[in-house]
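in:
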């Protein structure tokens, strides 16, 4: 349940050489406008997130141990999982107000953008987004909700599966599909 909430939050939202903040913040601000739109929400996620990088990060040490074909199959299953989680939770963001509070640059190409998500009748929640510039484009690679970073949490869960004796990439894919 918590994993689905974190995944759906991550999916709903999505350089200057010395200061990444404004461009990184713009990615999140732009994606927040379309979070609950049934037509634009899914496409916004694809454009705002670097899904292949997140999938490879999630595989951790196993990304180097599987074939290119298996890595591609995992990335496809991971994208389906994230987009499905978003679809399941999209209505929770229909009337949410998402405000960019600011950002902290880790490097000129790596920034953490902090947002406040206010839903009617609920206390506001802080959500942090890790946004990285790659090939001239800023993309979301992780999101933190309730103190948990999505990609880091997913990586731990996939490692727990893959660390089992005789586990294969198919076991990890099956976990994402269930």
């Amino acid at each position: 349940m918590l994993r689905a909430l974190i995944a759906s939050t991550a999916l709903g939202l999505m350089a200057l050489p010395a200061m990444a903040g404004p461009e990184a913040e713009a990615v999140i601000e732009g994606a927040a406008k379309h979070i609950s739109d049934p037509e634009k929400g899914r496409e916004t996620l694809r454009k705002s997130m670097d899904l292949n990088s997140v999938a490879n990060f999630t595989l951790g040490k196993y990304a180097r141990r599987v074939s290119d074909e298996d890595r591609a199959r995992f990335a496809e299953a991971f994208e389906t999982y994230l987009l499905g989680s978003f679809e399941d939770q999209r209505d929770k963001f229909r009337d949410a107000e998402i405000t960019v509070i600011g950002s902290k640059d880790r490097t000129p190409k790596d920034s953490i953008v902090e947002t406040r998500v206010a839903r009617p009748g609920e206390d506001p929640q802080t959500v942090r987004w890790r946004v990285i510039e790659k090939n001239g484009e800023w993309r979301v690679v992780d999101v933190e909700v309730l103190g948990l970073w999505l990609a880091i949490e997913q990586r731990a869960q996939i490692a727990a599966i893959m660390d089992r004796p005789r586990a294969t990439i198919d076991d990890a894919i099956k976990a994402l599909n269930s």
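note: The beta strands are 97-107, 110-118, 125-134, 137-145, 148-149.
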